[in-house]
Specification:
Its cofactor is a divalent metal cation. The structure is a single chain. The chain has about 300 residues and is of the alpha+beta class. The chain has nine helices and six strands. Helix content is about 60%, strand content about 10%. A four-stranded mixed β-sheet has the order 1-2-4-3, with helices on one face. Strands 5-6 form a two-stranded antiparallel ribbon. Helix 4 runs antiparallel to helix 9. The chain has three domains: about 100 residues, Ribosomal Protein S5, domain 2, CATH 3.30.230; about 40 residues; about 140 residues, no CATH class. The relative contact order is 0.14.
Length: about 300
């Protein structure tokens, strides 16, 4: 069986650097395409674009969240307060409070003012900055490796589960095909009984026309085409599982086709036994479709 990947997973990677310890946490959940959100320390927004490109090269689908933390090292970005400017704005806030009765200034409000608090870049040398960025991206690539492995492990479990569900769909299809109610002699006897009952209860019917209508109803109730299409879909599902790769969308579409045939089988059934098989089939197909949503 080919290798399948789940869209859910979590990984963490860390590296030591002169500027501080680098740590990434990355997690992913189901998504229709690749969507990513990054949480980066102030001043490291430049990392987002190259990190996003690394992620998009590795994965085909999923919603991703990536968080970078840097511990305080010798060259880590420390906040710097312009104390002279802070005193000026604090004094201005006090005068406004005395003269106009404004609310007193708070520490967090004052620090949020532009120019009061800054995160200067401690690495003025472009070469050193590029080395730090390279280390951060290398740690991110390591985290993506861990995430891919986690998604691969869950994908293997999903593949086994989906293969079992396809086997159950095939078994139910075979049960419907072999059901005693579908035997030609059983269908003929049931139609003859129904026609005879109608002829006894009513008058004025054209017997030939009535038999023609009965034959037409029998043809409409035939589930041969549905059974054939179910068998075809089973073969297609097995081929996709065997091929592996990013087949989640294809299997999702196939799940819709399974569901359509199961619904038609139930609606055309003229025997309680076949209806029961159809309902069981619908339950298995629903489980199949639910699990497929987790596949890349």
């Amino acid at each position: 069986m080919g290798e399948l990947h789940s869209m859910t997973g979590f990984a963490r990677a860390a590296q030591d650097h002169d500027a501080g310890a680098i740590a990434w946490e990355v997690k992913s959940v189901n998504g229709r395409s690749v969507e990513a959100r990054f949480r980066l320390p102030p001043g490291f927004e430049r990392i987002e674009q190259p990190a996003r490109q690394l992620l998009q090269k590795r994965f085909a689908r999923g919603n991703f969240q990536a968080s970078l933390t840097l511990s305080q090292g010798g060259a880590y970005r420390r906040p710097v307060v312009d104390e002279a400017f802070l005193k000026e704005v604090a004094a201005l806030a006090s005068r406004l409070q005395e003269q106009f009765g404004t609310a007193p200034a708070t520490a967090d409000g004052l620090l949020a003012l532009r120019g009061v608090l800054d995160y200067p870049d401690p690495i003025a040398d472009d070469t050193l900055r590029e080395a730090l960025d390279a280390a951060i991206l290398a740690a991110f690539a390591q985290a993506l490796d861990g995430l891919a492995e986690a998604r691969r492990g869950e994908g293997a479990a999903l593949a086994a589960l989906l293969a079992d569900q396809v086997d159950r769909i095939e078994a139910l299809t075979k049960r419907a095909e072999d059901d005693a109610s579908r035997a030609p002699e059983t269908i003929r006897a049931r139609l003859q009984e129904q026609v005879a009952r109608l002829l006894e209860a009513t008058t004025g019917f054209d017997e030939t026309r009535l038999h023609m209508e009965a034959a037409l109803l029998a043809a409409k109730a035939d589930i041969r085409e549905e059974l054939d299409r179910l068998a075809t879909h089973v073969a297609a599902a097995r081929a996709m599982l065997a091929a592996g790769g990013a087949v989640g969308r294809k299997l999702d579409f196939l799940g819709q086709e399974f569901n359509r045939e199961a619904n038609t089988l139930c609606s055309k059934s003229n025997a309680a036994s076949v209806t029961a098989i159809g309902l069981e089939l619908k339950a298995v197909v629903d489980q199949f479709r639910e699990q497929v949503q987790n596949l890349e």
